[in-house]
Amino acid sequence: MTKLEKYIKKKGGVLSGDLARYIAKNQGISNAAARKRIQRLGSPIHKITGLFSDKKSFIYHADNYQKSEYFDDLVDAFKSDGKRCYAIINAIKYHHGLIPAEELPNYSISPVKLVSGHMKFSSLIEKLKKHNLIRETREGEYGLNISIAEQAAPNFRHIKGIELSKKLILQHFETWSKNIGLVSFKKGKNNHIVGGFQFAFTAPTYIDGLIGYSNKRKKPGFLVADILIGNITNEDAISFFIKKLAAIKASNPTLKLFPVLLVDGIGIKALNQLKSNGILVASIKELYGKDYSDLIKNLINTVTNAGAILKTEPEKYLSLMSKLTKLIDGKTNNLRGDLFELAVGFYFSKYSQSINIGKRVPVLDSIRSREIDVLAITENEVCSVECKGYNYPVDIDYIEEYLSEKVKEIRGWVSSRYPERRQRFEIWSTGGFTKEALKLLKETKSKVKKFDFDYLSQKEIKERANRLNSEKFKKILRDYYIKEIV
To answer: Is pLDDT above 70 for 329?
Structure first.
């Protein structure tokens, strides 16, 4: 092994520019000569190219590949000379290790559509996946390689609580901006593209100063907003927003933007950076009040600790749902469906020894996992419940996949974990089922012998609610899901 190979191996990984300066200094040659020597390096020395500024490359020894020091140095190299890659990694870290695939472009400084001089977001993601830096889950999320992640396993419930809260806040932000006349009526969109880049919320605005003209016709400006909640929001966290706006201004200087960053707390330095770049910082507490801010915290906590709360402190859940009822209308109706699993979990908590909401279980002989909406365990039975709390019927395609794949894979985990207990599967749908789906469900219920199976539409859900004999629970179902509860 040469001295240079030993040096690279000791470093874990090094940028070509830094390596050239080291060679030039230690061998008394010019930087140009040092760079040519780097170009001639071959196995066991390897390079990652195309992801760094000024055509730099990341140089590493084969013995270090995919080891912790390799990833540490690679992330440091992204931070200094690969901003677009670092923005992706930092966004996933900020979101506690997992982020929905449709949301990740919001936190990127790479365009979703082709913009001259920029690598497209999709191309960047493929390169990061190729180098085993990020992974895509079956559930449609992006996570980090375990060597980069700051925690061994994501807290899925906490992540879901934050995601639901973000949806609610963005929906109320749209209502607020519409009510004060800032944006056009019914024109707001989530995870939408403006100037080639994606934002969490966008809407055209005709406010004076934001209007442009094209062939003497008015051309609206755009309100563009992203959201950062549930973590420390410092200069590192907000840098993507500033860089994204700068990229749009450089590539499309006539486009007028009104940029807003929604936060639940922010450091002074980050706040000053945003203000100096002409960005409106909208604090959740200041925008909607302390009660609203406290409710969001309560929502995150309840979703995070749903199983324990439903089993030991169900009044907390009932109180949360009562308060949310006052906030949920129009587009925010989707939150009802997202929280239906808590309502079903409340029901089963009265009959079970233990209850788990949104539990992810490993699929045997696979790196994938499956989520169980409600897992209720008694002395003799393990019940896995699928929850669909929406106002439209579940179709045949969903039921076929649920029965052929999800039930099968969850059964494998239950059999290995609770081999002595009877298995039961149920699917609850407040919107019912299509005729084709209903036919398959009836056939399945009559045929299966190895486990118990049932499906519930509004009629059966009402019967279960009446059996529970909880007036508060019935009120939650009436307010959210089913009007005709006795």
So the answer is: no
